[in-house]
Amino acid sequence: MRPAVLNPLFAPVTSLPGVGPKVAALYRKLLGAAEGELPAVIDLLMHLPTGMIDRRHRPPLRDVVAGELATVRVTVVDHRAPPPGRSRAPYRVVCDDETGSLTLVFFNAQAKWIAGVLPLGGEVWVSGRPELYDGMLQIVHPDHIVPVGQEDRLPEVEPVYPLTAGLNLRGVSRAVVAALEKLPTLPEWQRPDVLRQHHWRSFSSSLSAMHVPT
């Protein structure tokens, strides 16, 4: 009989926020669950990152290098919506700091959403991979847009997970963080002296360190 302390780990992934029946089908494919079965929380916790994205590089705009990931603090100075009748044209948001200018480019994005996350005159942190277009610096669909003062929402080091069609990195990361909150403190099966000798972390601490790298 399974010890009660393990029950949260063997709950279905649908017990996690944002994982409904449709999304659960994608997690079944991602985590290799049998047809008709739901993967458990522990299956998601054992789905380990294959790499990391380092977002700690925070240069002024004048020092941004095209092609290199950067996180910049900018002020929103102009919104340039597509002309009427050209819905496929990009929506552009011009931002700047004291050293230069940056355009954020969005395709098929809702103007109301853009106005909410990038209000005119607002100061925001933007993270993504900049490129040059007609000699101007731009980021197409930034990875993160966070208001200044809410930097705790912007990961400095972000894990990268294997994905499947229909799942994105942000959604999987949120599910993993929720799964970590269900991780109980478990008794170790290795003796304390063995852990100290090899400088090994506890089971819970190891999983947390892999999913929330510093």
Q: What does this molecule look like?
A:
The chain has 214 residues and is α+β, with helices and mostly antiparallel strands. Helices cover 24% and strands 24% of the residues. It has a seven-stranded mixed β-sheet. Strands 1-9 form a two-stranded antiparallel ribbon. The longest helix has 12 residues, at 169-180.
Topology:
Elements: H1 21-31, H2 41-45, E1 51-54, E2 70-80, E3 91-97, E4 100-106, H3 111-117, E5 123-128, E6 131-133, E7 136-140, E8 144-147, E9 157-160, H4 169-180, H5 192-198, H6 203-211
Parallel strand pairs: 4-7
Antiparallel strand pairs: 1-9, 2-3, 2-5, 3-4, 5-8, 6-7
Helix amount, in percent?
10-25%
Residue windows where pLDDT falls under 50 for at least 5 positions? none
Shape: globular
Mean pLDDT comes to: 93
What's the tally of helices?
A: 6
> How many strands in all?
9
Determine the strand fraction and express it as a percent band.
15-25%
* Rg over CA atoms: 21 Å
Order of helices and strands: HHEEEEHEEEEEHHH
Largest sheet, in brief, is:
7 strands, mixed
Q: What order do the strands of the largest sheet run in, or round the barrel if closed? A: 6-7-4-3-2-5-8
